[in-house]
UniProtKB/TrEMBL annotation:
It comes from Halalkalicoccus tibetensis. SUPFAM superfamilies: Winged helix' DNA-binding domain (SSF46785). This is MarR family transcriptional regulator. Residues 97-130 are annotated as: Disordered. InterPro entries: WH-like_DNA-bd_sf (IPR036388), WH_DNA-bd_sf (IPR036390). Residues 102-122 have a biased composition (Basic and acidic residues). It comes from the Archaea.
Amino acid sequence: MSIDRETFERATEDELRDVSVPDQVLAFLTAHQDRAFKATEIARQLDLEPDTVSTALTRLKSRELVEHKSAYWALTSDSNRLQSSADYERATQLFNDQLGAEAKDDWEAHAPAEPHPSHQSDNDTDTNTS
């Protein structure tokens, strides 16, 4: 995965080493955007576990950043979608730099035990309201 020069100059070795699997997969598909690959081929090229790559691809598909047909995966052709994702990532990094990264454990400690009613399925809601 490529990074901008400013990131290269300010990041530590450890920070540069910790590129997420979805980012690695997305970078690989971006570098080969004229082709579609099987998940196992992507895993082999990136020296990652196939199951890990499959999970990353599924998550990227849910974000509409990759397309899936039969056993093949490719980068989305929707350049606006890719740009929106890149803008989101840049904004998140900016806020993390200014305010500190969000601590997931702290967030989960304050999260409600039950999901908000808008996130419950129809089967989970009480239909006997008056």
